[in-house]
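User: tokens in, sequence out, please.
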């Protein structure tokens, strides 16, 4: 078989995503913190971009009413999804010679949120926190105040250094004895002293020892409490009250009282001194009820307001700059203009998607989670005239503050369970809430089984399988009925 070379001319069509379009898609799916970080990076990298000052905002911002009208009347700009890239009109316009005066006046003005500056700005005191000592610092401080010898202090320091964040000793006494050059008995004596430090139960080697230390320190005199911790802790975890009562020869009600005492103890002594900071959720959107209507407002706080640097704008307008410098300015100007337009597009898209969600979930906003309707991405995509992938990007890592609480936008999208009479489906989240309330209000001596929950929901015209109830219960961290049962007291 002979091999030969041939030339073929083939005409094909393919979708090419430009870097600008990729940036617009990336900005759309960023969380609030990621967006702020990205903008700050662009401010450092692009000399033509700068953040507007408060004086500029006061001079150029428009009234709240006019700003809301602009948001409400603005049409959705299609094309953020990869499947709709060819519809995006921005890149073609951005490549043309830019009207610098329009960029400075119109683009900068449109980038500003509708702020009211009547109130005096004050610092956000939630961002001002006092320094907090961790568990190691707290124990070291107590060690310095103790009357231990220098040798004991050295061993105690090794013990403190080998504690985990919950306050448990992760090294064996043999290892500590080897590192300190002493015997195991000496380490055991020092360990007993460290275990008397605050918080009570610290430096224990397991949960059983931790609880026993707390029982002795609190002076709990009921011998059943110590017996349950020493010999039946696993059965206590499983809530096997009848088996515990049989093994100890005590009445079930006595066992319940002893377990209640055990529940009051702290299984993780170091938790109060955890160095992990609380991460507060800052909503991207606010939904307010004004009269009988719900109003959507974007949260623009802490977001840098971008504008074009007037110095470079004037340099680009004048012809007395070198050609290479002018080309550099024009290139950075295109990049800055595209970033500003992409941020505008992100705001408009989030606003329109939230408006659509509010329209679909009006009953939820009025009455609560039990009235959440089943909804999929396609419902909102068809309503706002965008692609489902765009809706998916918009709802990722975005949070909305509603009269019912703060929720991630993806929370409102859930499958539905069919009703027995064939009427409108009910959202899975709503069914989970009903199951949670049923279990919360049940008689602890006769908890509902999964089968009984199915029968109760059937009376409410909800068709659901027993295994689905079990799955929802597990997702909510609720134990089965056999482990929720409590003896009568």
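Assistant: Sequence out:
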């Amino acid at each position: 078989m002979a091999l030969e070379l041939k030339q073929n001319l083939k005409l094909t069509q393919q979708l090419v995503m430009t870097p600008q379009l990729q940036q617009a898609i990336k900005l759309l799916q960023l969380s609030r913190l990621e967006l702020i970080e990205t903008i700050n990076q662009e401010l450092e990298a692009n000399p033509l971009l700068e953040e507007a000052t408060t004086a500029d905002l006061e001079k150029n911002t428009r009234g709240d009413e006019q700003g809301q009208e602009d948001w409400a009347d603005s049409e959705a700009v299609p094309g953020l999804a990869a499947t709709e890239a060819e519809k995006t009109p921005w890149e073609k316009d951005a490549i043309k010679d830019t009207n610098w005066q329009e960029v400075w006046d119109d683009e900068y003005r449109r980038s500003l949120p509708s702020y009211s500056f009547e109130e005096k700005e004050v610092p956000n005191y939630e961002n001002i926190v006092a320094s907090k000592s961790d568990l190691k610092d707290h124990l070291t401080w107590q060690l310095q105040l103790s009357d231990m010898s220098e040798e004991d202090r050295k061993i105690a320091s090794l013990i403190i250094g080998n504690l985990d964040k919950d306050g448990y000793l992760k090294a064996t006494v043999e290892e500590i004895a080897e590192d300190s050059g002493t015997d195991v008995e000496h380490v055991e004596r020092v360990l007993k002293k460290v275990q008397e430090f605050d918080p009570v139960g610290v430096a224990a080697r397991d949960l059983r020892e931790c609880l026993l230390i707390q029982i002795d320190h609190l002076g709990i005199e009921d011998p059943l409490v110590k017996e349950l911790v020493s010999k039946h802790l696993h059965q206590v975890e499983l809530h096997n009250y009848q088996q515990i009562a049989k093994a100890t020869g005590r009445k079930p009600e006595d066992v319940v009282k002893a377990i209640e005492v055990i529940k009051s103890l702290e299984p993780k002594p170091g938790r109060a001194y955890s160095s992990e900071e609380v991460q507060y959720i800052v909503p991207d959107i606010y939904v307010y009820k004004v009269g009988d209507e719900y109003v959507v407002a974007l949260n623009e706080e802490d977001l840098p307001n971008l504008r074009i640097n007037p110095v470079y704008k004037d340099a680009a307008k004048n012809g007395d700059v070198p050609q290479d410098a002018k080309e550099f300015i024009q290139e950075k100007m295109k990049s800055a203009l595209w970033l500003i337009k992409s941020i505008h597009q992100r705001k408009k898209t989030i606003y329109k998607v939230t408006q659509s969600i509010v329209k679909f979930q009006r009953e939820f906003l009025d009455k609560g989670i039990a009235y959440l309707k089943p909804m999929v991405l396609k419902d909102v995509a068809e309503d706002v005239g965008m692609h489902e992938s765009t809706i998916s990007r918009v709802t990722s890592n975005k949070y909305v503050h509603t009269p019912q609480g703060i929720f991630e936008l993806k929370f409102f999208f859930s499958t539905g369970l069919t009703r027995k009479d064939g009427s409108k489906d009910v959202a899975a989240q709503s069914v989970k809430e009903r199951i949670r309330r049923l279990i919360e209000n049940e008689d602890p001596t006769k908890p509902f089984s999964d089968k009984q929950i199915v029968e109760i929901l059937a009376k409410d015209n909800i068709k659901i399988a027993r295994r689905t109830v079990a799955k929802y219960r597990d997702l909510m961290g609720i134990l089965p009925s056999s482990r929720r049962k409590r003896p009568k007291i």
